[in-house]
Amino acid sequence: MTEETNGLRRPPLSSSAEPTPAEYTGKRGPPFLEFIAIMMWLGTLHFLAFLVVASFVLLPLSNFLMVIAMLLVLTFIPINDNCKWGLALARFIFKHVGGYFPATIYVEDIKAFDPDRAYVFGFEPHSVWPMGAGILANLTSFMPIKKVKILASSAVFRTPLIRHLWTWLKVSSVTKKNFISLLKNGCSCIVIPGGVQETFFMKHDYEVAFLKTRKGFIRLAMENDAPVVPVFAFGQSYVYKWAKPQGKFFLKLSRAIKFTPMIFWGAFWSFVPFRRPMLMVIGKPIHFKKNTTPSMEEVSVVHGQFLEALQSLFDRHKERAGYPNLELQII
């Protein structure tokens, strides 16, 4: 038999060396609350754009400038990471977002994780929006991990309102200095190594992981003795429909501006994602000896192990996720 509490299904503990899987599935709630949670999470940027445009069009110049001044203040005002109502808001958002799709987190071997260690979770794919990473960071309380953060572009933390909300949603800057600081303080990090450039290579008929040249996260993990964990989010690529330009010019443009110019839409042609089941599978940690000055060859060996583990993880679970014919291309 298995135990089930708050959406978590965990087999009874065993003294054998067999893997001990664990699974959490978000539970459906009132549709209105799910909609509010999605709007808070994904609609803040749209709200900011509407606020600025509406203020410019409808308000006198002096009032419009006051709105801009207020937003500038919010851009630089210090953020309280432990704000009680902010953290309560984050819990509300992901309690309902997890049930909206619904999202399932499956850990292949929960006993493989040590609560006294920090881990680097290599999350793929990026998709239009890597919302699975946010769900993962906020719904892993059933795992023996003390603290976890998602690493995202530092531009997020120069945007009013978003910088506050996303901080409470466990998002942190992806700068090297911050990455190292988090690991040294025992905080596990979720990184999306393919980055926004991966979106340029997205295809409709198979998954793409832009990883073959992405080795920086491996080096930092080795230098800070943080095992690397492969993670794949099935279904994430289908919560939005999208279209994007092709060709060398747009590839160069995407690299220059650090994102891919594309259009995407969800339910009712809005930013609200389609309700598609998501399955995030977490593989076993890849261990290695701490090496403060790893050579390129040593980094490449661990990087190769990560790519192999990610591909194997994908192949083992794609049928269970409902995509038996889906292929993953690692480029």
Automatic annotation (TrEMBL):
Query: Which coarse location class describes where this protein primarily resides?
Result: endoplasmic reticulum
Any idea which UniProt keywords this protein has? Answer: Acyltransferase, Endoplasmic reticulum, Lipid biosynthesis, Lipid metabolism, Membrane, Transferase, Transmembrane, Transmembrane helix
Question: Cellular location of this protein?
Answer: Endoplasmic reticulum membrane
Q: Answer yes or no on keyword NAD.
A: no
Gene Ontology cellular component list? endoplasmic reticulum membrane
Mind telling me which Pfam families this protein's record contains? DAGAT
Q: Name one GO biological process term.
A: triglyceride biosynthetic process
Indicate yes or no for the key word Endoplasmic reticulum: yes
Tell me the GO molecular function terms: diacylglycerol O-acyltransferase activity
EC nos: 2.3.1.-
Q: How does it sit in the membrane?
A: Multi-pass membrane protein
The residue ranges crossing the membrane are 35-58, 64-83
Q: Where is this region: Disordered?
A: 1-25
For this chain, the family text in UniProt reads:
Belongs to the diacylglycerol acyltransferase family.
* Designated name of the protein: Acyltransferase
Species of provenance: Lactuca sativa
Mind giving the lineage of the organism this protein is from? Eukaryota, Viridiplantae, Streptophyta, Embryophyta, Tracheophyta
